[in-house]
Amino acid sequence: MTTNLKVYNTLSGEKEKFEPINAPHVGMYVCGPTVYSFVHLGNCRTFISFDMIYRYLTHLGYKVRYVRNITDAGHLENDADEGEDKISKKARLEALEPMEIVQKYTLNFHDVLAKFNNIPPSIEPTATGHIVEQIDMIQQILDEGFAYEVNGSVYFDEEAFNKSNANEYGKLSGRKIDELMAGSRELDGQSEKRNPVDFALWKKASPYHIMRWNSPWSLGFPGWHLECSVMSSKYLGDTFDIHGGGMDLKFPHHECEIAQCKAANHVDPVKYWLHTNMLTLNGARMSKSTGNTLLPEELFDGDNDKLDKAYHPIVVRFFMMQAHYRSSLDFSSDALSASEKGFERLMEAMATLSEIQAGESSTNDFSAWKAKCYAAMDDDFNTPILISHLFEAVKWINAVKAGNASISATDLNELKDTLNAFVYDVLGLYPIESAAAGESDDFVNSLMETLIEVRKEAKLKRDFATADYIRERLSNLQVTLKDSKDGTTWDKE
Ligand code: AMP
Ligand code: ZN
């Protein structure tokens, strides 16, 4: 299959025609969160951007296998090779088991992304679930002569790798290995590493490091960069189509991923590298480490000093879609409240669409409009341009309603299909009011009856996972189910 999609590839610094290795199949890997604290809105922006990309690829007819990992071990403080594991540190501070920390923040992550209407990935592998595979890859890299062992730790040997790979290390981020070596040599006198740019593949655990596993080298733990190389190649193959993440991960994380894969598998792992830009707050990057963050929950309940009121998650999603994923986006009360007005105007037009009558002919050129919508998305997922075209349709719909324009029956049908596809399927929005229509809305009522029935059946079969899933998804839409001896009723906030 062929499409007109072009994507900006960080590797070439250019927009390239998207030609999957094995169309219609597409393999996409996105670096997931390190689950040691609540996700902030900056993290959410990256995951919402890739959700939109996943949705558009699927809309175009690609069969996407979307893999997004959970980092639950090996990520040390300051993203370095020395220091405490971020998860164990949090476990110590909260007096919990590391795996309780992992569970707590993984649940939060899923909950928040569901509120933003993100579709879960096809596979969500964890670092701790792939220790054996990580040990295998380290052994392969050692066998190839691109790693060395010191005191039970194994380090990637940049010099050896670069010599036999045409100085490739740095090609994604544009860093020069000589400069990297010169810049860091003096800082690192005590290190076990032969070279300061070398990075850990396996670390021997200190007596205080509680997350540790057996390996041929020591009781220890894998380096942070390794898990993504291992899990992407395990589930998507040695070379796959898309690798994504925030642009802060380009160096060193993604650069190290490329080196590890190339060293172990002899091929470049990724055809298209896609990087999202940062969400900023008061002009500075939103980040856990600096504390310049806003949590999604604070936004949804308005409980913070940065905003004047609460905002619905879907409005926040729309706000994010109004910026291109490669542009930085600054978060402010004013910008969000402008987005809310735009979102309402769009959704009102979507509702009006079902009321308007078709005429003899169309005053506007529907086909040209539809082509512009696709052209925007085909141009490296340009959602802000797409949204500007959607607002052209809003004007047309309102003009038809007011009797100042007309639309033919064929065009009206196609306009509905196209708007539904872009607004709901691709941008992932949904009308906030739909479930609130309550008893006056027969359609919603019968949908709710169906869901309640399915949940009841599930409970009878002791399939509590399904029953809980239904309750949880409804709760994300502010719909509460009340069980009593007379049956189940529902209520929308
Ligand atoms: P972390 O859990 O810190 O590894 O981050 C998870 C994902 O969120 C990574 O892909 C980061 O690049 C991304 N990220 C972190 N901060 C921001 C931000 N301010 N804006 C957008 N993405 C971010
Ligand atoms: Zn990663």
Describe this protein's structure.
The strands form five sheets. The chain has a four-stranded parallel β-sheet with strand order 4-3-9-10, sandwiched between helices. Strands 5-6-7-8 form a four-stranded antiparallel β-sheet. α11 packs across α13 (383-401). It contains 16 helices and 15 strands. The chain has 493 residues and is α/β, with parallel strands linked by helices. It folds into three domains: 6-147 and 157-177 and 227-276, HUPs (Rossmann fold), CATH 3.40.50.620; 300-430, Orthogonal Bundle (Isoleucyl-tRNA Synthetase, Domain 1), CATH 1.10.730; 441-492. The chain is globular, with a radius of gyration of 25 Å. Bound molecules: adenosine monophosphate (AMP) and zinc ion. Zinc ion (ZN) binds at residues 31, 228, 253.
Q: Ions, cofactors, ligands: which are bound?
A: adenosine monophosphate, zinc ion
- CATH superfamily membership of the largest domain: HUPs
Kindly, what is the distance between the CA atoms of the first and last residues, rounded to a whole number of angstroms? 45 Å
- β content, as a range? 5-15%
Beta strands, count: 15
| Proportion of helical residues | 40-55%
Instruction: Tally the helices.
Output: 16
Tell me, what's the shape? globular
Strand order of the largest sheet: 4-3-9-10
For the report, how would you describe the main beta sheet?
A: 4 strands, parallel
The fold-level CATH name of the largest domain is Rossmann fold
Q: How confident is the prediction overall: mean pLDDT?
A: 92
Low-pLDDT residue intervals, each spanning 5 or more residues:
434-439
Would you state the CATH class of the largest domain? Alpha Beta
Radius of gyration: 25 Å
Question: How many domains, as an integer?
Answer: 3
Structural class by helix and strand composition: alpha/beta
Under the CATH scheme, the architecture of the largest domain is 3-Layer(aba) Sandwich
